[in-house]
Specification:
It comes from Parapusillimonas granuli. Helix 2 links the parallel strand 1 and strand 2. Helix 4 packs parallel to helix 11. The strands form two sheets. The chain has a six-stranded mixed sheet with strand order 2-1-3-10-4-11, sandwiched between helices. By secondary structure, it is α/β, with parallel strands linked by helices. The chain folds into two domains: 183 residues, 3-Layer(aba) Sandwich (D-Maltodextrin-Binding Protein, domain 2); 98 residues, D-Maltodextrin-Binding Protein, domain 2. It contains eleven helices and eleven strands. The N terminus is likely disordered.
């Protein structure tokens, strides 16, 4: 009887997966989350031996797609991408969000991370982060910063930095990074806190002066740019991330199969190169590590949002 039960258990494990897996991307096609999802899905399909099909379900800052994952059958055949928006900021900004970012999901692995950069127009007087801090503190409320949208990671990241240094600036939200960068490059707005991929070409061309980058270490594409940590802001790190989640209640063996396959996918040399080229740097951590990261993100942004009395409808 014992051996029969064990054999059945092994057969059940071996059977997963035996049909296509749906990967829900909670943002529209063509954006950074979608790019990550499609690049990783291609390699994960090869590793798992079944097709991983990307399905875009955009809307409500990613909440529609995330909720679809939360409500899916916990059998491993529907997974999704979580971001700092769906599992960090949105749960704190939108009281009517239809899911619990911790209780309704099984964390699998954080796939990639993408740093953010604080940059200024070349005409701005600050040449480094120390000078920037001094200048902003000496001129409270005089200058504005461009961001990709009110309540987004770039806006909240800058708000958090200003809270830390005791500075005041005007938040100027745009509908995405592209128009925000256009105005900073053009000199209409002097400062921008933006993600790595969209800022990089303007920094390399000299149209923006980068002051500091988030993350634990310097980026090899901008080796002369110090991190916030190196510049003295040890506990400040606002990094975009894209992780794999399933609905709550996934069986342990299914969870581990998915986590290991997708972590292996992002560490594959060819896949890693494609991700790095797009400004997303492979992570591939464990379910426990990713779960702890999500809880930390929620706590961090809760504090920032409450302190800033930030409310969005």
């Amino acid at each position: 009887m014992l051996f029969t039960g064990l054999a059945a258990s092994l057969n059940a494990w071996a059977a997963f997966p035996d049909k296509p897996i749906t990967l829900i991307v909670p943002f529209s096609a063509g954006g950074p989350t979608d790019v990550v999802g499609r690049v990783v899905a291609t390699k994960a399909s090869q590793i798992l031996g079944v097709q991983v099909v990307v399905e875009n379900r955009a809307g409500a800052a990613g909440a529609i797609g995330a909720n679809a994952v939360a409500r899916a059958k916990p059998d491993g055949y529907t997974v999704g991408l979580a971001t700092v928006s769906t599992h960090g900021t949105a749960p704190n900004l939108y009281p009517e969000i239809p899911y619990d970012a911790v209780k309704d999901f099984t964390p699998l692995t954080n796939l990639v991370a993408s740093p953010n950069i604080l940059s200024v127009h070349p005409g701005f007087p600050a040449k480094d982060l120390k000078e920037f801090v001094a200048y902003i503190k000496a001129n409270p409320g005089k200058y504005g910063y461009a961001n990709a949208g009110a309540g987004g990671i770039n806006d909240l990241g800058m708000i958090w930095f200003l809270q830390r240094i005791g500075g005041e600036m005007i938040s100027i939200p745009y509908r995405g990074s592209a128009p925000a960068l256009t105005d900073v490059v053009g000199g209409s707005v002097p400062v921008i806190f933006d993600n790595f991929p969209s800022s990089l070409p303007h920094i390399q061309s000299g149209k923006l002066r980068a002051l500091a980058i988030t993350g634990a270490e310097r980026n090899r594409q901008l080796p002369d740019l110090p991190t916030f940590k190196e510049a003295g802001h040890v506990d400040y790190d606002v990094t975009a991330w894209y992780g794999l989640i399933g609905p709550a209640g996934l069986p342990d063996d299914v969870r581990d199969t998915l986590a290991q396959a997708f972590a292996k996918a992002v560490k594959d040399p060819e896949t890693s190169a494609k991700l790095t080229e797009s400004g997303a740097f492979p992570v591939g951590n464990t379910p426990a590590e990713f779960g702890a990261q999500i809880r930390n993100e929620i706590a961090r942004w809760s504090e920032v949002i409450k302190k800033g009395n930030i409310k969005l409808q």
